[in-house]
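Progress against Task 2.4 (sequence-to-structure conversion) is shown through the following example record, which the project officer requested during the mid-term review.
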Amino acid sequence: MAYRFKRDRFCKAQRFAAYSQALGERFIPRVLPDSAANPDTPAFFEHVVASPHSVVTAHLIDEAGQPTISARDEILSFFANRLAS
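Structure tokens generated for the chain above:
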């Protein structure tokens, strides 16, 4: 399972395509719109990264109903299910 923002400058669509080709059905891609990213990030992200990138850390919007919180919850559930197996 992997998450990215649509216009992420570092994790581009080509990377997800390569993962999909290499892993087939085992790869679970998720793409969020850039508008789902928290715009209030540390200066590093604003100046160096300059695009939404960190779905569950710097660009997380920690509020119920936000796509990034749903992503975090889905990732945690995925790991919990895998580790319980």
